[in-house]
Amino acid sequence: MEAIDPKEGDFFEGVLLETFRDGYVTRPRVRPVEALPQRLKVEFPRHLREENPIGTRFRADVYVRQKHHGDGSPNGPLYLRAENHSIFRVQRPDTDELVFARQQPGMISGRAYEYFSIKGVPKSTAEKFVALRIRAYENTIEDVPNRFIDAMRRERSRLMAEYAFARSNGTCEGCLKPAPFIRRNGQPYLEVHHIVALAADGSDHPANVAAICPNCHARITHGKDGRVFNSEIKARIIQIETQLDGA
């Protein structure tokens, strides 16, 4: 795809962006991957650049901006400003060595960074669960723009379901009994339940999902004590997540 030649004030929806390590500065930066020239730097939330490995890709709405001198003449090159409410992550680097940036301690400006890498694919069940939990929390974004909601919710719901099943380890997080039967793929059969329903502004968040048996799911929906039972599950999941935080 040929890059568009942007002008100050232009607006683009859903632009694919990625974090990268600029050879001229230490801080991690963000650039467009398609449609717009890669020379354009992106004004992007610092915490997202620091919390995600180099090479992570996002989609966001962007405005083309230009700084000016006091007389109105251009001051530096054009740049892009990502609208914070529109940002969501779409891909992490497909590699067994993830590179992260962190601020160098003691630097007042906050613009000096050092880099460190995490190597190797987790092997043990415990390590895999920890990695999955990190991914689940990283993919929790409360404010999702409507035009992205369907695609993003499908991906986030899949990830949250995977995490809830792993956390439950085959035991219903409602009645605390083993799953009622085994699926054809050999996995225990449990259902993912959003404690606060998505329709009621609940979120795809590790603390808002529970892996429960069909009987408990029906009890929440149709039971006389469904609301109370749901509150009990909520308290249990929060307790589990709190314990995992301290693990």
Keywords:
23% strand, 5 helices, 247 residues, six-stranded mixed beta sheet, two-stranded antiparallel sheet, single chain, alpha+beta, elongated
Secondary structure blueprint with pairings:
Layout: E1 11-21, E2 28-32, E3 42-43, H1 46-51, E4 57-65, E5 79-82, E6 88-91, E7 97-103, E8 113-119, H2 125-138, H3 149-168, E9 191-194, E10 209-212, H4 214-222, H5 226-245
Parallel strand pairs: 3-5
Antiparallel strand pairs: 1-2, 1-4, 4-5, 4-6, 7-8, 9-10
Helix pairs in contact: 2-3, 4-5
**Oligomer kind:** single chain
Largest sheet: 6 strands, mixed
H/E element string? Answer: EEEHEEEEEHHEEHH
Shape: elongated
Gap from first CA to last CA? 47 Å
Classification by helices and strands: alpha+beta
Spatial extent as radius of gyration:
22 Å
Helix content: 25-40%
Low-confidence stretches: none
Number of strands: 10
Mean pLDDT: 83
Percent strand = 15-25%
Q: Count of helices?
A: 5
What is this entry, summarized?
The protein has helices at residues 46-51, 125-138, 149-168, 214-222, 226-245, and strands at 11-21, 28-32, 42-43, 57-65, 79-82, 88-91, 97-103, 113-119, 191-194, 209-212. With 247 residues, it is an alpha+beta fold. Helix 2 packs antiparallel against helix 3 and helix 4 (214-222) crosses helix 5 (226-245).
Could you characterize what this model shows?
By secondary structure, this protein is of the alpha+beta class. 28% of the residues lie in helices and 23% in strands. It has 5 helices and 10 strands, in the order E-E-E-H-E-E-E-E-E-H-H-E-E-H-H. The strands form 3 sheets. Strands 1, 2, 3, 4, 5 and 6 form a 6-stranded mixed β-sheet that branches. Strand 1 (11-21) and strand 2 (28-32) form a beta hairpin. The radius of gyration is 22 Å and the shape is elongated. The model has no long low-confidence stretch (mean pLDDT 83).
